[in-house]
Amino acid sequence: MLIHKITDLAQYAVSPVIREGDTVIDATAGNGLDTEFLAAKAGPSGRVYAFDIQKDALVRTAERLKEKRLDQQVTLIQSGHENLARFISEPVSAVMYNLGYLPGGSRELTTGLDTTLSSFKQALSLLKQGGIITVVLYPGHAEGKHEKEGLMPVISRLSSAEYTVLHQGYLNKKNNPPELVVVQKVLFSSEHPY
Q1: Domains and CATH numbers, the chain
Q2: Rounded-to-integer distance, Cα 151 and Cα 123, Å
Q3: Which residues pair with 92 in a beta bridge?
Q4: Is the pLDDT reported for residue 111 higher than 90?
Q5: How far is CA 65 from CA 38, 39, 109, in A?
Q6: pLDDT digit string (tens) for 154-177?
Q7: Residue that wins the pLDDT comparison between 120 and 103
Q8: What confidence tens digit (pLDDT) does each residue in 42-82 have?
Q9: Residue 102 and residue 60: Cα distance in Å, rounded?
Q10: CA 82 from centroid of its chain's CA atoms
Q11: Measured between alpha carbons, how far is 77 from 175 in angstroms, rounded to an integer?
Q12: CA–CA separation, 101 and 144 (whole Å)
């Protein structure tokens, strides 16, 4: 698989831990690319919860899913991702965050540190053993830089006995390119997730 964008790498990271029938979350639906990916991986017996505060984002996502015939297993929720626990109580295999602003939308409306921190902590509590959270960060704009500076200390302090944390970024791109953080909840048995 060729990886052209860091969002491709995020999908690659979660792919092995999602089984047919699993419950997964797209915490930032945007244009629906991750929602579509998660719906295809979880299959018709799975459940995908996709959050976005912008109605336009959910309309775009719904159109994408309908076109691909993946809409039956997806629940679109017009709400901030800081409300995950209000809508989901069952364990999840994967949670994907693609922070920042909606591509093609207003750059003034972005994810923010406080709501993302709240959401991330809820995602940790919902995550199954072996499950993965991906966070794509965009430090190239002011709020994205603030989010990274606030999230990274929290993520780096996660117990290594409970979580494996990986931080990846481009070495040869300029202007603060996107970065990826992958958090996997450690398995406490001899079973392997894939």
Answers
A1: 6-185 (3.40.50.150)
A2: 14
A3: 127
A4: no
A5: 11, 8, 24
A6: 999 999 999 999 999 888 888 888
A7: 120
A8: 999 999 999 999 999 999 999 999 999 999 999 999 999 99
A9: 11
A10: 13
A11: 33
A12: 9
